[in-house]
Amino acid sequence: MAALQGRLLAGENVVATLEVDLDAHGHFAQGLIALTNAHLLAYEPASGTWSDYVLSPGQSLKLSDHGGLAFLELSDAERRLARWRFTLAGNPAAVKLVDAFERELQRLAGQSVREDEDEGEDFDFGESSAPPSTWVLLRLWRFARPYQGQLLLGFALMLGATGATLVSPYLTMPLMDRVLIPFQNGQSIDPGLVSMLLAGLLGAALVSWGLGWAKTYLLSLVSERIAADLRTATFEHLLGLSLEYFGNKRTGDLMSRIGSETDRISVFLSLHALDFITDVLMLGMTSVILFSIHPGLALATLVPLPFIAWLIHLVRDRLRTGFEKIDRVWGEITNVLADTIPGIRVVKAFAQESREAKRFKEANANNLHVNDRLNKTWSLFTPTVSLLTEMGLLVVWGIGIWLIAHKSITVGVLTAFLAYIGRFYARLDSMSRIVSVTQKAAAGAKRIFDILDHVSNVPDPVNPQPFDNVTGAISMQGVNFRYGSRSVIRSLNLDIRPGEMVGLVGHSGSGKSTLVNLICRFYDVTEGAIRVDGVDLRRVKVSDYRRHIGLVLQEPFLFFGTIAENIAYGKPGATRAEIVAAARAAHAHEFILRLPHGYDSLVGERGQGLSGGERQRISIARALLIDPAILILDEATSAVDTETEKEIQRALDNLVKGRTTIAIAHRLSTLRKADRLVVMDRGEIVELGPHDELIEKQGHYWRLWEAQARRVDAEAADDGGLMVVTPNPNAHATVADV
């Protein structure tokens, strides 16, 4: 830090700093990035030198992530100036640095800068920290384009309805000057003229009502479809993202975005956007009519406009950041619900109801605090706009009376003018209120597009290779993988023959599950390559590849629905005969028939209506039905009792026949049938071979086998005593070991 202070110019202050812990080659090294009010300074650990970048308009500082690492890129309008990498631990400081960088560029451009009052805001990793701009709503056009014909028709109806509403004030001029005032002065009323004027008023009202109903109904239908398409596109894009993305997100927050945010956008499009366009049309048409009637009086009408525009500009930034914060704290409320309700059994088992209630109360109080701050701004803005329009109306009254006194205009003209002004100011007031809902919609749209803009870390290739007739030969060459700053797989080389069963063994944290995730392509390797039948997995569409993989997990996940639907999840078009055949092979058919409705029995939320062994056999049947070439067994029998394990093992024996199988097992005895065992330690293969051969070596595997055998013997010895409880008049119970 002393070296940094020595590089600062007179009057230059450090605004934000970021300690980077990786060099340009991905090796651990301590560097520093410092933002001042004039420069961006960076200490390069590899060379031990400082780089200096003068801040100038047009530059950008972008934060992104890939492969568990974060990247910060400095660019100008033409090229990338610098790029730094660091682990996830530096992400909060990086977000603040990017935010501060944007504020400094705004200062350089002479723009007003919003100072964030809430330090330490928790931003989502990899998403833009900039406040939502209203222009983000224009990106919704990609979803509106399929309905542009209906939108054009709706705009035409809106134009006609708005024009019809402006007819009535215009007809008040002849009603006042040619009917009412002459009648007050003793002249007779012309019935024909009155009938014609009243018919015009009635006709304008009916036309306005009919066109208004048609455009509201049409545009409401369109807006609902736009929102539905947005919701579908967001969910489909979310499904295409890698597991790494979901590891950094809360379920409740994602549910809130796809649910409430798209609903908010739908309401904005169907109601508020429609009102805004109507207001603009009304203001434009009314202004033309006012200037055609009397230009001087029309200019007086526009007196409040500059003040209202200044107010809107003043509160817009506060509103846009405020509404995004409201979205985030509401996401926290949803997170508490998403955590507590599915885990209610655990909450009750540990008597933590009061703790969860406290969490919800704190999240709710935070939501209340953020809303109160925003409402304080909004409550001052709205009455001020109303006051300005009332003052403008008083100015028009005063000038109008003066003009009538000097015989420059008639009473009818002033009456019509006041009628138009009432509509003009009402629309002006409505437009000012739309600022609030517009910023709400912009905040929601930004959170939606944060998902849509995120690129999967496991992308599909541009020109994918066909991938059919898979035999299951797997080759791993020089495979390396990192979780953030932690290297999990190191220089791994392994070839698995088609139809071979390979067991992965090792201590917890040795990299077994990570290797399986790489083979399934839930993650992409950092270095090296994994090939199946000689084809690099990165050259194949993810969906094409995973059709050939069957996965049986330690904790099988079942969806709410029938047993038949869960077995056929990987093959929705399967016939009942195929489902029953898969269940028989998985030794699940007997217990399924004992259920009240057999294969049509509901399994409950996450399969809670079944035992652990029953759920596991359903998952095995699910894997059998798709007939995969590659089978992954991840601790498939570790969470069940011995008797159930035997049932599952018989089902697995049917499952592994003729398939390339990679199995992870807690009990080493379950892997004795494996053709080869891969012993892993700290992300590396330390031994490889059949069970008997590895036992003879008395190496890593032998030590694991002996340790587990001693533990089993100890458990058996402990279970050799029976606890017998006998009555005793002097005590509650006497315990004797038999």
Walkthrough of the structure:
- This protein starts with a helix and ends with a strand.
- A 6-stranded mixed β-sheet has the order 13-14-15-10-16-17, with helices on both faces.
- It is elongated and about 125 Å long.
- The protein has 738 residues and is α+β, with helices and mostly antiparallel strands.
- Helix content is 53%, strand content 17%.
- A hairpin with a 2-residue loop joins strand 11 and strand 12.
User: First CA to last CA: what distance?
Assistant: 71 Å
- What global shape is seen? elongated
Backbone structural class? alpha+beta
Strand content: 15-25%
Largest sheet: 6 strands, mixed
- Low-pLDDT parts are 114-126, 720-738
Number of contiguous helices: 22
Reading side by side through the largest sheet, how are the strands ordered? 13-14-15-10-16-17
Total DSSP E strands: 19
Topology summary:
Elements: H1 2-7, E1 14-22, E2 28-36, E3 39-44, E4 49-54, E5 60-66, E6 69-75, E7 80-86, H2 91-108, H3 141-144, H4 148-165, H5 167-184, H6 191-239, H7 243-247, H8 251-293, H9 295-301, H10 305-340, H11 344-349, H12 353-405, H13 411-452, E8 474-483, E9 486-496, E10 501-505, H14 512-519, E11 527-532, E12 535-536, H15 542-546, E13 549-552, H16 563-567, H17 576-585, H18 589-593, H19 612-625, E14 630-634, H20 642-656, E15 660-664, E16 676-681, E17 684-689, H21 691-697, H22 700-718, E18 723-728, E19 731-737
Parallel strand pairs: 10-15, 10-16, 13-14, 14-15
Antiparallel strand pairs: 1-2, 2-3, 3-4, 5-6, 6-7, 8-9, 8-11, 11-12, 16-17, 18-19
Helix pairs in contact: 4-6, 4-8, 5-6, 5-13, 6-8, 6-13, 8-9, 8-10, 8-13, 9-12, 10-12, 10-13, 12-13, 17-19, 19-20, 21-22
